Amino acid sequence: MKLQHSLILASIVLVLDLATKHWVESALVHGQQIPLTGFFNLVLTYNAGAAFSFLSDAGGWQRWFFTGISAVASLLIIYLLRKHAADRLFCIALSLILGGALGNLWDRVTLGHVVDFLDFHAGGNHWPAFNVADSAIFVGAVLMVIESFRHKELDAGKNRG
User: Fold this and answer.
1) Catalytic residue among 17, 107, 119, 134
2) pLDDT of 52 over the 60 cut
């Protein structure tokens, strides 16, 4: 996959993420919930930490810590996209992760927190709210796991033959 195609996919994820966050922030006030189904709400919440609000109450230093991690990870991903351009699924996975990382990075740098708004729940238990960027990172990670199993199968077939 050409680097430019990978960057286009990452840019699409970034634009979708930023557009949906902007829309939710213009439509809701912090903490407001709009039930859409029996298991899904739109909610406007802010996360100063990482996944599952990890370090969200750490006092502010975590903003720059996670900003640094996201920036370094983004540079590493671009390097890997160049190096593994022939591996299409791997590049798609990395592109999704890059777009998501950049979306959350933008929030951290400009707002000091990440905007989350997708709230799934069942039986009174709520999954931590998340956003398009988080979804893209998750899908990219799943694709990487699938890709790793695919490579193990290919390597095993080569060793047998």
Assistant:
1) 134
2) no
